[in-house]
Description:
Layout (H helix, E strand, L loop, with lengths): L19 E4 L7 E13 L4 E7 L4 E5 L2 E5 L3 H16 L4 E6 L4 H6 L7 E6 L2 H10 L1 H9 L3 E5 L2 H4 L9 E7 L13 H10 E10 L8 H10 L5 E8 L7 E9 L7 H14 L8 H6 L5 H4 L4
Parallel strand pairs: 6-7, 6-9, 7-8, 9-10
Antiparallel strand pairs: 1-2, 2-3, 3-4, 4-5, 10-12, 11-12
Amino acid sequence: MARSQPQPTKKTTHKASDDRQVERLHQGYAQSMEITKVLADEQSRFQHIRIFDTVANGRVMTLDDVVQITDRDESAYADMLTHLPMLEHGKVERVMIVGGGDLSIADEALKHKNVKEVVLVDIDERVIALCKKHFGAVNAKAFKDKRMKVHAADAFEFLARKECKNRFDLIIADRPDPIGPGKVLFGETFYDRIKGALKPGGYATFQTGVPFYQPWEITEALQELKRFFPKCGLYLSVVPTYIGGFVALTWATKGGKPLGTPAGIKKAASAYKRSKLKCDYYNPAIHQAAFALPNWIAKLVP
Protein backbone atom coordinates (compact mmCIF):
# COMPACT_ATOMS: atom_id res chain seq x y z
CA MET A 1 0.00 0.00 0.00
CA ALA A 2 1.12 3.54 -0.59
CA ARG A 3 -0.01 6.99 0.44
CA SER A 4 0.79 10.41 -0.88
CA GLN A 5 2.61 13.11 1.02
CA PRO A 6 0.77 16.29 2.04
CA GLN A 7 1.65 19.07 -0.40
CA PRO A 8 1.78 22.07 1.97
CA THR A 9 4.65 20.60 4.00
CA LYS A 10 7.91 18.89 3.28
CA LYS A 11 8.30 15.21 4.04
CA THR A 12 9.25 14.64 7.66
CA THR A 13 10.54 11.46 9.22
CA HIS A 14 10.94 10.24 12.76
CA LYS A 15 13.58 7.77 13.81
CA ALA A 16 11.72 5.29 15.93
CA SER A 17 12.96 3.90 19.20
CA ASP A 18 13.50 0.17 19.62
CA ASP A 19 9.96 -0.37 20.84
CA ARG A 20 7.86 2.21 19.01
CA GLN A 21 7.28 3.45 15.46
CA VAL A 22 5.94 6.97 14.99
CA GLU A 23 4.49 8.17 11.70
CA ARG A 24 4.25 11.92 11.09
CA LEU A 25 2.66 11.97 7.65
CA HIS A 26 0.26 14.83 8.30
CA GLN A 27 1.25 18.18 9.73
CA GLY A 28 0.33 18.45 13.41
CA TYR A 29 -0.71 14.80 13.74
CA ALA A 30 1.10 11.51 14.40
CA GLN A 31 0.30 7.87 15.01
CA SER A 32 2.43 5.60 17.16
CA MET A 33 2.70 1.81 17.13
CA GLU A 34 4.24 -0.29 19.89
CA ILE A 35 6.68 -2.78 18.39
CA THR A 36 7.18 -6.29 19.70
CA LYS A 37 9.83 -7.41 17.19
CA VAL A 38 11.81 -5.80 14.36
CA LEU A 39 12.17 -8.16 11.39
CA ALA A 40 13.89 -5.91 8.84
CA ASP A 41 15.50 -2.48 9.00
CA GLU A 42 17.55 -1.39 6.00
CA GLN A 43 18.19 1.38 3.52
CA SER A 44 17.66 0.29 -0.07
CA ARG A 45 18.75 2.27 -3.12
CA PHE A 46 15.47 4.14 -2.92
CA GLN A 47 14.11 4.24 0.63
CA HIS A 48 14.30 3.16 4.26
CA ILE A 49 12.44 -0.13 4.73
CA ARG A 50 11.24 -1.38 8.11
CA ILE A 51 9.15 -4.47 8.82
CA PHE A 52 8.07 -5.21 12.38
CA ASP A 53 5.42 -6.87 14.52
CA THR A 54 3.21 -4.69 16.69
CA VAL A 55 0.92 -5.04 19.68
CA ALA A 56 -2.25 -3.75 18.00
CA ASN A 57 -1.77 -3.78 14.21
CA GLY A 58 -0.11 -7.07 13.36
CA ARG A 59 2.85 -7.11 11.00
CA VAL A 60 3.67 -3.73 9.48
CA MET A 61 5.92 -2.36 6.75
CA THR A 62 6.94 1.29 6.61
CA LEU A 63 8.84 3.06 3.85
CA ASP A 64 10.63 6.19 5.02
CA ASP A 65 8.62 5.91 8.26
CA VAL A 66 5.24 5.96 6.48
CA VAL A 67 2.96 2.94 6.95
CA GLN A 68 2.45 1.04 3.70
CA ILE A 69 0.81 -2.22 4.77
CA THR A 70 -0.30 -4.11 7.84
CA ASP A 71 -1.53 -7.67 7.70
CA ARG A 72 -4.55 -6.66 9.81
CA ASP A 73 -6.14 -4.17 7.42
CA GLU A 74 -4.51 -4.71 4.00
CA SER A 75 -7.71 -6.26 2.66
CA ALA A 76 -9.63 -2.98 2.92
CA TYR A 77 -7.18 -1.50 0.43
CA ALA A 78 -6.28 -4.44 -1.81
CA ASP A 79 -9.82 -5.79 -2.13
CA MET A 80 -11.31 -2.48 -3.19
CA LEU A 81 -8.66 -1.59 -5.78
CA THR A 82 -8.98 -5.07 -7.26
CA HIS A 83 -12.32 -6.87 -6.93
CA LEU A 84 -14.56 -3.87 -7.45
CA PRO A 85 -13.34 -3.06 -11.00
CA MET A 86 -12.74 -6.71 -11.89
CA LEU A 87 -16.27 -7.80 -11.04
CA GLU A 88 -17.87 -4.89 -12.88
CA HIS A 89 -15.66 -5.54 -15.92
CA GLY A 90 -16.47 -9.24 -15.87
CA LYS A 91 -13.76 -10.49 -18.24
CA VAL A 92 -10.41 -9.31 -16.88
CA GLU A 93 -7.61 -11.54 -18.17
CA ARG A 94 -4.49 -9.39 -17.83
CA VAL A 95 -3.68 -7.16 -14.87
CA MET A 96 -0.77 -4.78 -14.29
CA ILE A 97 0.14 -3.47 -10.85
CA VAL A 98 2.27 -0.34 -10.56
CA GLY A 99 4.19 -0.68 -7.30
CA GLY A 100 2.56 -3.11 -4.90
CA GLY A 101 5.80 -4.90 -4.00
CA ASP A 102 4.14 -6.56 -1.01
CA LEU A 103 1.98 -8.51 -3.54
CA SER A 104 -1.22 -8.12 -1.48
CA ILE A 105 -3.05 -6.67 -4.51
CA ALA A 106 -1.62 -9.34 -6.80
CA ASP A 107 -2.85 -12.03 -4.42
CA GLU A 108 -6.40 -10.69 -4.73
CA ALA A 109 -6.28 -10.40 -8.52
CA LEU A 110 -5.11 -14.01 -8.83
CA LYS A 111 -8.23 -15.23 -7.00
CA HIS A 112 -10.11 -14.69 -10.26
CA LYS A 113 -9.94 -17.87 -12.34
CA ASN A 114 -10.29 -16.09 -15.68
CA VAL A 115 -7.08 -14.10 -15.08
CA LYS A 116 -4.27 -15.29 -17.33
CA GLU A 117 -1.50 -12.91 -16.25
CA VAL A 118 -0.66 -10.50 -13.45
CA VAL A 119 2.35 -8.26 -14.13
CA LEU A 120 3.73 -6.40 -11.11
CA VAL A 121 6.35 -3.69 -11.58
CA ASP A 122 7.96 -2.24 -8.44
CA ILE A 123 11.14 -0.18 -8.60
CA ASP A 124 12.58 -1.52 -5.33
CA GLU A 125 13.75 -5.13 -5.48
CA ARG A 126 14.42 -5.09 -1.72
CA VAL A 127 10.77 -4.37 -0.93
CA ILE A 128 9.78 -7.36 -3.05
CA ALA A 129 12.36 -9.65 -1.44
CA LEU A 130 11.66 -8.61 2.13
CA CYS A 131 7.90 -8.88 1.68
CA LYS A 132 8.30 -12.34 0.19
CA LYS A 133 10.20 -13.32 3.33
CA HIS A 134 8.05 -11.63 5.95
CA PHE A 135 4.51 -11.30 4.54
CA GLY A 136 3.85 -14.88 3.50
CA ALA A 137 0.41 -14.79 5.10
CA VAL A 138 -0.52 -12.17 2.52
CA ASN A 139 1.43 -13.16 -0.59
CA ALA A 140 2.67 -16.78 -0.45
CA LYS A 141 0.09 -18.00 -2.98
CA ALA A 142 0.85 -15.14 -5.37
CA PHE A 143 4.59 -15.85 -5.44
CA LYS A 144 3.88 -19.51 -6.26
CA ASP A 145 1.29 -18.79 -8.97
CA LYS A 146 2.57 -19.40 -12.52
CA ARG A 147 0.43 -16.50 -13.78
CA MET A 148 2.42 -14.07 -11.63
CA LYS A 149 5.23 -12.04 -13.26
CA VAL A 150 7.27 -9.80 -10.98
CA HIS A 151 9.61 -7.12 -12.36
CA ALA A 152 11.96 -4.98 -10.25
CA ALA A 153 11.88 -2.03 -12.63
CA ASP A 154 10.69 1.53 -13.16
CA ALA A 155 6.95 1.24 -13.87
CA PHE A 156 6.88 4.58 -15.68
CA GLU A 157 9.41 3.31 -18.22
CA PHE A 158 7.83 -0.17 -18.30
CA LEU A 159 4.48 1.28 -19.38
CA ALA A 160 6.13 2.79 -22.46
CA ARG A 161 7.31 -0.57 -23.78
CA LYS A 162 5.78 -1.76 -27.05
CA GLU A 163 4.59 -5.00 -25.48
CA CYS A 164 2.39 -3.00 -23.08
CA LYS A 165 0.39 -1.29 -25.81
CA ASN A 166 -3.32 -2.15 -25.42
CA ARG A 167 -2.34 -5.14 -23.27
CA PHE A 168 -4.13 -4.91 -19.92
CA ASP A 169 -7.78 -5.11 -18.88
CA LEU A 170 -6.96 -3.57 -15.50
CA ILE A 171 -4.08 -1.43 -14.28
CA ILE A 172 -3.84 -0.78 -10.54
CA ALA A 173 -1.58 2.09 -9.49
CA ASP A 174 -0.38 1.36 -5.96
CA ARG A 175 2.06 4.19 -6.40
CA PRO A 176 4.44 5.58 -3.75
CA ASP A 177 4.71 9.10 -2.38
CA PRO A 178 5.10 11.82 -5.06
CA ILE A 179 8.73 12.48 -4.18
CA GLY A 180 12.01 11.15 -5.57
CA PRO A 181 11.50 8.36 -8.15
CA GLY A 182 7.76 8.31 -7.41
CA LYS A 183 7.16 11.79 -8.83
CA VAL A 184 6.80 10.50 -12.38
CA LEU A 185 3.76 8.44 -11.34
CA PHE A 186 1.71 11.57 -10.61
CA GLY A 187 1.97 13.52 -13.86
CA GLU A 188 0.06 13.78 -17.11
CA THR A 189 2.53 11.60 -19.00
CA PHE A 190 1.90 8.80 -16.52
CA TYR A 191 -1.86 8.90 -17.14
CA ASP A 192 -1.26 8.97 -20.88
CA ARG A 193 0.90 5.83 -20.59
CA ILE A 194 -1.73 4.13 -18.47
CA LYS A 195 -4.29 4.86 -21.19
CA GLY A 196 -1.98 3.48 -23.87
CA ALA A 197 -1.42 0.23 -21.95
CA LEU A 198 -5.13 -0.41 -21.36
CA LYS A 199 -7.23 -2.51 -23.68
CA PRO A 200 -10.41 -0.88 -25.02
CA GLY A 201 -12.98 -1.22 -22.26
CA GLY A 202 -10.29 -1.57 -19.61
CA TYR A 203 -10.10 0.13 -16.23
CA ALA A 204 -7.40 1.77 -14.11
CA THR A 205 -7.65 2.35 -10.36
CA PHE A 206 -5.51 4.63 -8.22
CA GLN A 207 -5.03 5.44 -4.55
CA THR A 208 -5.75 9.13 -4.06
CA GLY A 209 -4.93 9.94 -0.46
CA VAL A 210 -7.01 10.49 2.67
CA PRO A 211 -9.59 13.24 1.98
CA PHE A 212 -9.75 14.38 5.62
CA TYR A 213 -6.09 15.43 5.54
CA GLN A 214 -5.39 15.55 1.78
CA PRO A 215 -8.56 16.97 0.16
CA TRP A 216 -6.73 18.49 -2.79
CA GLU A 217 -5.66 15.07 -4.07
CA ILE A 218 -9.16 14.11 -5.22
CA THR A 219 -9.67 17.34 -7.13
CA GLU A 220 -6.24 17.35 -8.76
CA ALA A 221 -6.28 13.67 -9.68
CA LEU A 222 -9.72 13.81 -11.31
CA GLN A 223 -8.87 17.01 -13.17
CA GLU A 224 -5.82 15.28 -14.67
CA LEU A 225 -7.64 12.02 -15.38
CA LYS A 226 -10.39 13.86 -17.26
CA ARG A 227 -7.81 15.08 -19.77
CA PHE A 228 -7.19 11.50 -20.87
CA PHE A 229 -10.29 9.55 -19.88
CA PRO A 230 -13.83 10.80 -20.66
CA LYS A 231 -15.15 8.61 -17.85
CA CYS A 232 -13.56 8.64 -14.40
CA GLY A 233 -14.70 8.91 -10.82
CA LEU A 234 -14.27 8.27 -7.13
CA TYR A 235 -15.14 5.64 -4.53
CA LEU A 236 -14.11 5.08 -0.92
CA SER A 237 -12.68 2.56 1.50
CA VAL A 238 -11.63 2.67 5.14
CA VAL A 239 -8.15 1.47 6.12
CA PRO A 240 -7.64 2.00 9.88
CA THR A 241 -3.88 2.49 9.72
CA TYR A 242 -4.26 5.03 6.92
CA ILE A 243 -5.16 7.63 9.50
CA GLY A 244 -7.92 10.09 8.65
CA GLY A 245 -10.99 7.93 8.03
CA PHE A 246 -11.92 7.41 4.39
CA VAL A 247 -9.31 6.53 1.76
CA ALA A 248 -10.09 7.92 -1.70
CA LEU A 249 -9.76 5.55 -4.66
CA THR A 250 -10.15 6.92 -8.17
CA TRP A 251 -10.97 5.04 -11.35
CA ALA A 252 -10.80 5.70 -15.08
CA THR A 253 -11.85 3.66 -18.09
CA LYS A 254 -10.77 3.44 -21.71
CA GLY A 255 -14.13 3.19 -23.41
CA GLY A 256 -15.82 1.08 -20.75
CA LYS A 257 -18.93 1.81 -18.74
CA PRO A 258 -18.69 4.00 -15.61
CA LEU A 259 -18.09 2.13 -12.37
CA GLY A 260 -20.74 2.26 -9.68
CA THR A 261 -23.92 2.45 -11.77
CA PRO A 262 -26.93 0.41 -10.57
CA ALA A 263 -26.44 -1.96 -13.52
CA GLY A 264 -22.71 -2.32 -12.80
CA ILE A 265 -23.28 -3.00 -9.12
CA LYS A 266 -25.92 -5.62 -9.94
CA LYS A 267 -23.56 -7.26 -12.46
CA ALA A 268 -20.77 -7.34 -9.88
CA ALA A 269 -23.03 -8.92 -7.24
CA SER A 270 -23.98 -11.72 -9.64
CA ALA A 271 -20.35 -12.28 -10.61
CA TYR A 272 -19.31 -12.35 -6.95
CA LYS A 273 -21.86 -15.03 -6.18
CA ARG A 274 -20.75 -17.18 -9.10
CA SER A 275 -17.05 -16.76 -8.36
CA LYS A 276 -17.28 -17.85 -4.69
CA LEU A 277 -14.53 -15.36 -3.85
CA LYS A 278 -13.28 -15.41 -0.27
CA CYS A 279 -12.55 -11.85 0.84
CA ASP A 280 -11.88 -10.34 4.25
CA TYR A 281 -13.33 -6.94 3.30
CA TYR A 282 -15.14 -6.90 -0.04
CA ASN A 283 -18.76 -7.96 -0.53
CA PRO A 284 -21.57 -6.67 -2.79
CA ALA A 285 -23.02 -4.40 -0.09
CA ILE A 286 -19.60 -2.78 0.47
CA HIS A 287 -19.28 -2.37 -3.32
CA GLN A 288 -22.50 -0.40 -3.49
CA ALA A 289 -21.75 1.65 -0.37
CA ALA A 290 -18.31 2.66 -1.66
CA PHE A 291 -19.92 5.07 -4.13
CA ALA A 292 -21.94 6.88 -1.45
CA LEU A 293 -19.94 10.06 -0.83
CA PRO A 294 -20.33 12.32 2.22
CA ASN A 295 -21.28 15.82 1.12
CA TRP A 296 -17.90 17.30 2.05
CA ILE A 297 -16.13 14.73 -0.13
CA ALA A 298 -18.58 15.08 -3.01
CA LYS A 299 -17.74 18.80 -3.10
CA LEU A 300 -14.11 17.92 -3.90
CA VAL A 301 -15.10 16.19 -7.15
CA PRO A 302 -14.54 18.59 -10.09
